[in-house]
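Hi,

I'm pasting everything inline rather than attaching a file, because the server keeps stripping attachments. The sequence lines come first, and each chain or strand is labelled.
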Amino acid sequence: MRGRDTYGVDKEFVASQHGQIGCINCHKGKNVDDVDEAHEGLVKDPSEEGGGGVCRDCHDQIASSYKDAMHYNLTGIKDIVGTITSPHKMEDTLLPAAWQLDCADCHASCGSCHVAWPAVAKGGLLDRHRFQKRPPMDKTCYACHGSRFAGEYMGKLTPIADVHYEKYQMECVDCHLGEQLHNTKPAGVKRYYATETPRCEQCHPDSEPGRSEIAMHNAHAKDTLACSICHANEYFNCTNCHVSLDVKEEGQIKVIFPSAPLVTFKIGTNIDRSAGNPYKYNLVRHTPMKKDSLASLRYFQAVIKGAPGPADLVANYDALPTWNSASIHNIQRRTRQNASCNACHGHRELFLTQDDLAPDEPKANSRIIVGEIPAKITK
Amino acid sequence: MKKKSLMITAALLGVACTLGLARTLWAETEVSSQECINCHTDLDRMDEYGAAAAGGSAAIAG
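And the predicted assembly:
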C-alpha cells in the first residue's frame, strides 16, 4: 500500500477554512514563482513537531494529549527495543539512526491521518489536501497496520475478513474512537495497559459470562478467555525478520524486513493482564524478532561511523517473549473452534505449547505456553 | 448613563476595528501564498510531477 505522490491542491480546499490560512503560514517556503526558491525551507508536514505542530494553534486540546499518545510516540516499540538491547546505551548503537530511517515512519502526525498518506506509504495527499475529519481506513490505518490488524480486518491477509467489516462495513474509527486515538490514558502506557480502549462488551453486553443466553459464554468464568479465542480465525504472523539494506537507491540506506510469514492460531497465557485486557488466556501472535535480527546494524555502523557496534546488540533477548498478546481482527460469529465444546477442548494444536517454540527463541516464551490443555468433555 | 453608553460605543468600535484588522491580515495571508496556490492547483501539472516522482515501493509495516 502506498501513496500516490500527489501534491495537487483542489481549489475547494483553498477556499475552505483551513485553506484560507494560506500555504506558507503552515508549510513555510516562499511565495515566489521559482520552484526551487519557493520550496526553500519547506516543511512538508507542519503538523509533525511536538505532536501537533501548527495544528496546536487552533486544536490545542487535542494536541496537548496527542503528544503523549501511543500513535505519536510509539511507546511500545521504544520500550521493547530498549529492553532487549539493555544494557547497551542507545547512543553507542545505530538504533537511533535506524529509528529515524524506518520506525519513525510509522509514527503518526495529525497530517498523516487527516491530510496525507502516512510516511510509510510514501506520503502524498489523500484528497487534494481536503482535510479528512474521518481518516480513510484503507489508506491511513491500513498503511501502518497492513500486515496485521487492518489487513486481516479487510481479509487481505487471510481468506476470512472480519464480520464487522464484511457485513456492516464498520471502519476502524467506529470502535477506536478519535478521543482514544488522540489521548492514551494513562499517558505513555503501552496498548494493553491503556484504560480507555474498545471492548467487545461495550456493544455486546449480553455476551458477558453469567449474563448470556449462550451456554458457552456462561461456561467460562469472567475474565478467563478473550472473546477472540472463540471468535477469531487463523491469522498472520511474522517469524524471522532481519533488518537489511534497501539497495534500490545507491547510498540510500533504508531498513527493510524480509520475513517468513506464518498463518496460525495459538491460545497463550496472557502476561499483560490489565483492566483493559483482563483475560487469563489470550490469542498470541509471533513477533518477528530473532537474536540476530539487528546484526546487520553492526555492519552498517562500521561503514557509517568507522567502528562496528556491539556484537551482542540484542543482549537481553531472553527478557521478552516473541509470542505476545494479540488483538485479532478477523472476528466471525461461528468459527472452527467454537462449533462445539470439543472443537476446542482436547485440541492441542490450538494452544501454544513447548512444541511450538524454536530452540533459539527467548526464554520468556516459557511464560506464554499453556501448561495444561483442557481435556475433551466426555459427558 | 451617558458615560456608560459612550463606553459601550467605544468598546464596540474597538471590536469592529480589531475584526477589520484581522480580516485585512487574513486577506494579506491569502495573497501571500498566491504563487503556491497557482502552481499546486494546476492539477494536471501536479499529477504529471507526481507520476514522475513515483518510484520504488513501500513496504507494509505494523
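Confidence is low (pLDDT under 50) at residues 27-31, 56-62 of chain B.

If the labels don't parse on your end, tell me and I'll reformat.
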